[in-house]
Design brief:
This protein is an alpha/beta fold. The chain is about 35% helix and about 30% strand. The strands form two sheets. A seven-stranded mixed sheet has the order 3-2-1-4-5-9-8, with helices on both faces.
């Protein structure tokens, strides 16, 4: 039987609490900046954006500084504290506990966080995200995966402790699952091998 989301939350929270300081000091790769900029270019001025799995808030600050009304959520209290230090509206929430009214956001941004959701729970997570979006809103879903990077489970050689759970999906599987809930606006891949990144822009 595959893992369940509730089972992986505790180790994920601990791992990201432990790494918050290190992650806050790290820079942003140029290709990630390009993906972020491209998504911003699709959004209307002054909209309301939710970043899920926001980490230390680097991307949320970028969107805020470009005129969006941003809310950042993360399951790690330490990450949320770093977001708040940057003046962000940041809250401790996980993907299945998005405590917002339906249709609250014009856009959602999720960079390298939904790869921690087991396959069994991905449909419920996508539905939860869709619920808080306004009709026609855009959702950026970016994860590592595809090519030779497939399968799910804890990585014993993870550089963080405790080892995190990952679920890597083929391009076809990721697009098919997303298209059950959203309209696919764009899909492309960046990089290769264990750095291969799947970029999806979706419409609610």
């Amino acid at each position: 039987m595959s893992a369940r989301y509730d089972d992986v939350l505790g180790p994920l929270r601990e791992a990201y609490d432990r790494s918050a300081r290190q992650r806050d000091a790290s820079g942003k790769a140029a290709w990630k900046q390009a993906e972020r900029e491209a998504f911003l270019g699709r959004l209307p001025d002054g909209g309301k954006l939710l970043e899920i799995g926001a980490g230390t808030g680097q991307d949320s600050v970028y969107f805020r500084d470009h005129g969006l009304d941003v809310v950042a959520v993360d399951l790690s209290p330490e990450m949320v504290a770093r977001c708040r230090e940057k003046g962000l509206d940041a809250r401790v929430m996980d993907f299945l506990g998005l405590d917002f009214a339906p249709g609250s956001f014009d856009a959602v941004y999720a960079l390298n966080c939904l790869l921690h959701v087991p396959d069994r729970d991905l449909p419920a997570v996508l539905e939860a995200i869709h619920r808080v979006m306004r009709p026609g809103g855009l959702f950026f879903l970016g994860v590592y995966g595809g090519g030779s990077l497939t399968g799910e489970g804890e990585f014993a050689d993870d550089e963080q402790w405790p080892p995190r759970f990952f679920s890597f999906r083929s391009d076809e599987e990721l697009v098919e699952r997303a298209s059950r809930v959203f309209e696919v606006v764009d899909f492309h891949a960046v990089g290769a091998d264990h750095s291969r990144f799947q970029s999806l822009t979706l419409r609610a």
